[in-house]
Amino acid sequence: MNDIHDLESLKLALREFAAARDWGRYHTPKNLAMAMIVEAAELVEHFQWATPEESLAPPPEKLAAIRDEVADTLIYLVELADRLGIDLIAAARDKIAKNAIKYPAP
Amino acid sequence: MNDIHDLESLKLALREFAAARDWGRYHTPKNLAMAMIVEAAELVEHFQWATPEESLAPPPEKLAAIRDEVADTLIYLVELADRLGIDLIAAARDKIAKNAIKYPAP
Amino acid sequence: MNDIHDLESLKLALREFAAARDWGRYHTPKNLAMAMIVEAAELVEHFQWATPEESLAPPPEKLAAIRDEVADTLIYLVELADRLGIDLIAAARDKIAKNAIKYPAP
Amino acid sequence: MNDIHDLESLKLALREFAAARDWGRYHTPKNLAMAMIVEAAELVEHFQWATPEESLAPPPEKLAAIRDEVADTLIYLVELADRLGIDLIAAARDKIAKNAIKYPAP
């Protein structure tokens, strides 16, 4: 997996990973969206009793766990976008342009 | 925003966007994790009554809405990772390596 | 709906409501769990940028919206439990007994 | 905890449980909403790879785990409503009345 260096190579590695395990039939957008929100919730769990300030500086062990949940969320998001033919970066670019109109800078 | 072409430039654009609106004090990891799961749920909402098969081919209008929610989820994920100094691609690479051990290919 | 005065009568009213609209085929536990988390996220959304202190005293308009989201979450939770034959109160009672062992009072 | 037989007695038991452990300061609506969505996600997790049909008949062990997650979600929902002075049954009754107008029966 040393060749994962951007979203595109991540996408290709995830395709290969799922294909090798015959997971394609489970990976519908419906199921991937569920899997993604489960990972997002595991991330939320790390912060649920923390004050907003505490959440800025998690201890090393907690940070390592958070890093794993962040990765899991990204992985399912990339797989979901891939199944629907969505270019993540282009989608984010377009959304930021919309947000710039919705929330003009002062 | 034409200069957004990868996760790194997306991160920098989001930093600038938040700074211009003085949103920094709201953007604690606790709050960003909440915002992210809210967007993830808006994505889930598009699939809640669909069959897994239907979720593979949403009509154009729905797909455009899904693309926006996917973008919002990515945006908050990038901001959250940035606040905690997490490199998203490196985190995903490490997680896939762990998953390869946990779920060996047949 | 004046006869809704506890979880049991709420369950029966929801059964009738879904049957009258022929929603039974959509109301699988998988779909109801998705619908429930979507409502839970709409609740989370009301608190995402609030400080913990602010969240204790939402202004009246916001409180009314929160009340609706709380209701939606409960509605899907009751329907989900009903589809699986789970008695909500008995389940909560058993879980609190487990928690009392896991987190003994000082 | 044998005296838990409805939402009202559940609410009182949860108040006592939290007070005995001095958890009040953690139990802001913001934090309780986070805790609730985390439990809702643990419920979603049980169904993420299941077909809608499979989700209707989970094996006994899985059903027992689901029952625990359903209980946890209810517990946090009751605590959240309690902190905000929301009567869960009245809120559900009002929401169903609204839904009856929004989705008239054929």
Describe the structure.
Four copies of one chain form a homotetramer. Chain A is built from four helices and no strands. In chain A, α1 packs across α3 (60-83) and α2 runs antiparallel to α3. By secondary structure, chain A is an all-alpha fold. The model of chain A has no long low-confidence stretch (mean pLDDT 96). Chain A starts with 6 loop residues before the first helix and ends with a helix. The first copy, chain A, has one domain (7-102): MazG-like (Helix Hairpins, Orthogonal Bundle). The longest helix of chain A is centred in the C-terminal third of the chain and has 24 residues, at 60-83. At the C-D interface, α1, α2, α3 and α4 of C face α1, α2, α3 and α4 of D.
Spatial separation of the terminal alpha carbons of chain A: 44 Å
What name does CATH use for the topology of chain A? Helix Hairpins
As for the number of domains of chain A, it is: 1
Oligomer description: homotetramer
The strand count of chain A comes to 0
Low-confidence segments of chain A = none
What is the overall number of helices of chain A? 4
Which band does the percent of strand residues of chain A land in?
under 5%
Whole-angstrom Rg of chain A = 16 Å
Order of helices and strands of chain A: HHHH
Largest sheet: number of strands, sense, barrel closure of chain A: none
CATH fourth-tier homologous superfamily of chain A: MazG-like
User: What is the overall silhouette of chain A?
Assistant: globular
By secondary-structure content and strand pairing, the structural class of chain A works out as mainly alpha
Give the name of the CATH architecture of chain A.
Answer: Orthogonal Bundle
Average the pLDDT over all residues of chain A and give the rounded result: 96
Briefly, what CATH class of chain A?
Mainly Alpha
The most extensive interface between chains reads:
C-D, 66 and 67 residues
What is the helix fraction of residues of chain A, given as a range?
55-70%
